[in-house]
Design a protein that fits this description.
Blueprint (H helix, E strand, L loop, with lengths): L2 E5 L5 E2 L3 E6 L5 H10 L3 E4 L9 H15 L4 E8 L2 H12 L4 E6 L6 H20 L4 E3 L5 E7 L3 H20 L3 E4 L9 H5 L5 H20 L4 H4 L3 H5 L5 H9 L7 E5 L9 E5 L5 H10 L4 E6 L12 E5 L2 H6 L6 E2 L2 H4 L4 H16 L5 H5 L14
Parallel strand pairs: 3-4, 3-5, 5-6, 8-9, 8-12, 9-11, 10-11, 12-13, 13-14
Antiparallel strand pairs: 1-2, 1-7
Length: about 375
């Protein structure tokens, strides 16, 4: 693979030069979206809430926005809030990194029209700086790859996820980093994961992380063994949670698991990690983006259109029907595995080629269509 990216001052690399417009509070979401729409290369980070949160819930929200703003693909981050205090705490966290950063308050600027004008002028100046940067060669080991699947069916576990897993193995073999998540979709497959680490503490953390989501559901009166697979999974031919889980795990390849990460936590070293984050795609990819994923490989069976705003998301599918009917959203069509007997190794090569192209600047379907969104997990109530 021949790869190139933008070298940051602190040694990290970015495969994009996004300008992130982060709404620190939900009241700033509309103006944040308008600002991002006015400047090419800008992306809007618009979470719900941001005010009235307390304790661990507030910390998770703030830390996730800081993580998104300091993703290596972000050249500069503008934090917008109703009042300056809410934005300042996020800006300070982002400013601790080398990313360009500023904060503006709607109240302090005298309303959104004035803030919009000032913000667009600032982002245009940042864009001029970013456009002057040149790519330079990088190695695969410098990348953090996020792994995701959604809209799963029988072809997910037979084609898309195993093909992604072949690329995951290559990333790990070359000293890179990969993060898979969705612990609830490992339910029934825990032993397949614990067998991939000799560390007893990591084994117990894996079991505890998967068990956590089963217990959350049980407290709400839901038995995941009887309700998962979801209706679209069932229509796609999946019959049991174990079948779904073993197919999902395939995207993590076959190499040893280094450790377990908290929601949005960045890996401290290279290797393969499980991240503790809920399975819904937008919520999960938000955690992967905050954790520093340069790109996300997303296997789908019956189709899923959403991507992460700071981590280019590559949609990979092996279902011939979906590849035809959902074509505007599919980056890597692997339907030839089932339709024409293409070898799985060749499918893995196709994933590698697509990932290489995106790292080098090729635009994903999610980026082209603007199909990106974030959703930060809530763990508490507002006051």
């Amino acid at each position: 693979m021949t790869l190139s990216a933008f070298r940051r001052a602190d040694g990290r690399v970015g495969i994009r030069n996004y300008l992130a417009v982060i709404a620190a509070t939900d009241a700033a979401n509309p103006v944040a979206r308008r600002i991002a729409a006015a400047v090419p290369g800008a992306v809007a980070i618009t979470p719900l809430y941001g005010r009235g949160q307390l304790g661990a819930d507030l910390a998770l929200s703030v830390n996730t926005m800081i993580g998104l703003g300091t993703n290596p693909n972000v050249y500069g981050a503008l934090v917008v809030s109703l009042e300056a205090v809410a934005g300042r705490r996020i800006m300070e966290g982002i400013g601790a990194m080398t990313t360009r950063c500023a904060a503006m308050g709607i109240q302090e600027e005298g309303g959104t029209p004035r803030l919009f004008e000032k913000a667009v002028a600032l982002l245009r100046e940042w864009k001029r700086e970013a456009d002057a940067l040149a790519r330079s060669p990088i190695e695969l080991r410098e990348l953090v790859v996020g792994l995701e699947c959604g809209g799963s069916d029988t072809t997910s576990g037979l084609v898309a996820n195993p093909a992604i897993g072949l690329f995951t193995d290559r990333v790990i073999d070359e000293g890179g980093t990969a993060i898979f998540s969705e612990p609830v979709e490992c339910l029934g497959g825990e032993s397949a994961l614990t067998a991939r680490t000799p560390d007893a503490a990591v084994q117990e953390r894996i079991r505890a992380t998967v068990r956590k989501y089963e217990e959350i559901a049980l407290r709400a009166g839901v038995d995941l063994n009887k309700t998962n697979p979801a209706p679209d999974n069932i229509r796609g031919g999946l019959t049991t949670i174990e079948e779904k889980s073993l197919g999902s795990i395939c995207k993590a390849g076959t190499r040893n698991i280094t450790g377990v990460l908290d929601y949005g936590e960045r890996p401290a070293s290279h290797g393969l990690y499980l991240m503790d984050a809920p399975a819904p795609a937008t919520e999960n990819m938000t955690a992967l983006g905050a954790g520093g994923a340069h790109l996300i490989l997303f296997g789908t069976g019956v189709g899923n259109s959403i991507g992460c705003p700071v981590s280019p998301t590559i949609k990979i599918c092996g279902n011939p029907l979906t590849c035809r009917s959902f074509a505007p959203h599919i980056d890597v069509d692997l339907s030839n595995v089932i339709g024409e007997g293409l070898a799985l190794s060749a499918a893995g090569d196709a994933v590698t080629q697509a990932a290489s192209a995106v790292v080098n600047g090729a635009i994903t379907r999610c980026e082209a269509l603007g199909e990106t969104e974030i959703a930060i997990s809530r763990i508490g109530e507002s006051v």
